[in-house]
Amino acid sequence: MSVEEPLFRVVRGVPTAEDLAALVGAIVVRSRPAPAPATAPVSAWARSGRPVGAALLPGSGAWRASGLPR
């Protein structure tokens, strides 16, 4: 039979059972991996309103070109 080392120990003070439960809960939550952020698909309508790289440059005819289909 082997004796396992504790995961943490209290070095100062006398915590209550509620204090220890809160500490264990915080450790458990922090040790879980963060969930991947959910990315919603972008509709074609939303994509059409976004400029594409260097396709829209200022200059002669830029205002007219901004309204033309690509």
From TrEMBL:
GO terms for molecular function: acetyl-CoA carboxylase activity; propionyl-CoA carboxylase activity. Pfam families: ACC_epsilon. InterPro entries: ACC_epsilon (IPR032716). It comes from the Bacteria. This is Acyl-CoA carboxylase subunit epsilon. The lineage of its organism: Bacteria, Bacillati, Actinomycetota, Actinomycetes, Micromonosporales.
